[in-house]
Amino acid sequence: MKLRSLLLIVPLTIVHLHGVAQQKNTFKPQKALLTTIQKNLADADAQYKVMAGLLKPDQFPKAFHPKDGKMETSNSGWWCSGFYPGTLLELYEQTHDKTLLTEADRILAALAKEQFNTHTHDLGFMMYCSFGNANRLNPNPEYKQILLNSAKSLSTRFNPVTGTIKSWDSKPTDYLVIIDNMMNLELLFWATKVTGDSSYYKIAVTHANNTIKNHYRPDYSSYHVVNYDANTGAVKQKKTAQGYANESAWARGQAWGLYGFTLMYRETKDKKYLDQANNIAKFILNNPNLPADKIPYWDFNAPNIPGALRDASAGSIMASALLELCRYTDKADGQNYFNTAQTIIKSLSSPTYKSAPGTNGGFLLQHSVGHFPAGTEIDVPLTYADYYFVEAMTRYKAFAAK
Ligand code: GLY
């Protein structure tokens, strides 16, 4: 079934994905910020039409390089390929602009083959942010089958000896798991809900438990990479790939963990995940290196703070996660999380971060850092910064509907 059939579903609900029914707390959004958000969403709608015009068939946006005006693209196998269709769909839900829906339909067709990709742990990002949103807006058997095949492909990467899903294929003696992998578990919970097969749920819970055990330091900051012995399950090494140093706190990794353990609590109601998410939030929010505008430096321990680059993507992910976590926790912490998310949205809405109309390859936000140590995607717009910013704004709006 084509997404175009969505055109028949009007008006669409503004109640957003995930967790609304489980809310405990509610907080009062600011009228001025709600107005800013409406403008941001309209601007994003226009920007994504600019972006669509820059893409050849089968090209997925990856980054834009403002210095030379070049769009960087990928094929469907890149870990970020789901964010472009996901953002189009979330924007369509807000603006009802059918052009975005038509573009989402086009790019989903190019993405669908990744359902059978067993060489990446990123299928949650790739398929749940895209087809998950498509199926949420317009449930149909075709999307459901694609999502189930994706969950099956992801499950093939689980090793019961390490109790984790393998993130990156590497040397046969390595078994590399990265903190980002927490984000891919949502697809597995969805698969258990739809099929009744608890094996997906069990994989997600086992992976999350071992991540608490092996990825986290006593201060609730996270290592980026843990290398296991696949034969014994022993941890061989804890290190970084995208952060400043093995013992540093790479900002986006902290954000992935915050979001990941918040979703673990949503899906299981196990308080240990709520405690983990709260402790991660405290590490981030109380960190002396978190700037006043709450957009983190690319690494909390980057050597040249305050001259270090900021990572808007980590800010977007944190804002979206905090706007869910604030519903579940006690009222005082919840208010703090809500206020912090509010500050992040305001910061990202300012010209410092938000692109001027028609610029920046159609991306909504500027100034993210992809892989600093590799020298790639440094201080550029990135698809996931936009995706989680749109999600955060949508979640903020939902508080006004209470
Ligand atoms: N590996 C995903 C990220 O860069 O956050």
Can you characterise this structure?
The structure is a single chain. The strands form 4 sheets. The protein has a 3-stranded antiparallel beta sheet, with no helix packed on it. It has a two-stranded antiparallel sheet with strand order 1-2. Strands 3-4 form a two-stranded antiparallel ribbon. The protein has 402 residues and is mainly alpha-helical. Helix 1 (31-53) crosses helix 2, helix 2 packs parallel to helix 12 (383-400) and helix 4 (123-137) crosses helix 6. A hairpin with a 4-residue loop joins strand 8 and strand 9. Mean pLDDT is 94; it is low at 1-21. Helices cover 49% and strands 9% of the residues. The site of glycine has 4 residues, from loops.
Secondary structure layout plus pairing:
Elements (H helix, E strand, L loop, with lengths): L30 H23 L6 E6 L4 E5 L8 H13 L2 H14 L11 H15 L3 H15 L2 E2 L4 E2 L10 E3 L6 H11 L3 H17 L9 E4 L6 E5 L11 H18 L2 H15 L26 H17 L2 H19 L18 E4 L4 E5 L2 H18 L2
Bound molecules: glycine (GLY).
